Amino acid sequence: MGVYDNQGVIVQLFHVYKCYGTYNALTDITFDVADNEFLFISGPSGAGKTTLLKLLYMGETASQGNIIIDGLNLSRISRSRIPFLRRKFGIIFQDYKLIPTKTAYENIALVVEAVGTRHNLIKKKVNSLLRTVGMDEKSGALPKSLSGGEQQRIAVARAIAGNPKIIIADEPTGSLDAESADKIMSLLKQYHSRGATVIIATHDTGQIRKTGGRVIILKQGQLEVSTIIPKLD
């Protein structure tokens, strides 16, 4: 299933399978993602959404088929090149995965430092990210003192800290109230507007309708349909 003809392609999957023993988590998945596309991957629990996302950044490896990320064929890259691949991604998890003993500032600073930011610029960069997600007043807070929505905003800031080409979000609003969910989606749309490709796995059809765009629907590990959902006015 191809993307729009006038856009470049940044993600390509060709007949991808993922098997765990005799269980097929994903079966014969083929689709493209356009550069700067805002794509939803939807389907019920157990459909294979999380597994599919993990294959893109090599959190898991495909059992069969080919995945090409920004020109890199994942079946051909060495283990030593995986960190290089992952620099292309910003990853947002449903359960945040913040380091509980680090403050909001420190959780973001670890990524800012890891991508090679000059030491004298780290503070400025982190504070800018905190302002972007509206969390500058909570920079010194530990994750346990923050609400779910606040933790997810820190997770978004951490994900975009390395200026990734692709943002992957796995059920980023799944455990949030409606107001917090809207704030997270707004932040993702904001980063998308700067040129990033955004891929969101979600079962939240309400958020899909609010945003609009292409939706790939999985069912029992198979690609059931790829469709365009118009944005609600």
TrEMBL record:
Pfam families xrefs: ABC_tran
Keywords for the protein's UniProt record, in alphabetical order: ATP-binding, Nucleotide-binding
SMART domains reported for this sequence: AAA
GO terms assigned for molecular function: ATP binding; ATP hydrolysis activity; transmembrane transporter activity
Annotated ABC transporter domain residues: 11-232
One cellular component term from this protein's GO annotations in UniProt: plasma membrane
Function noted in UniProt: Part of the ABC transporter FtsEX involved in cellular division. Important for assembly or stability of the septal ring.
PANTHER family found in the cross-reference section: CELL DIVISION ATP-BINDING PROTEIN FTSE, IMPORT ATP-BINDING PROTEIN
Annotated family: Belongs to the ABC transporter superfamily.
The protein, known as: Cell division ATP-binding protein FtsE
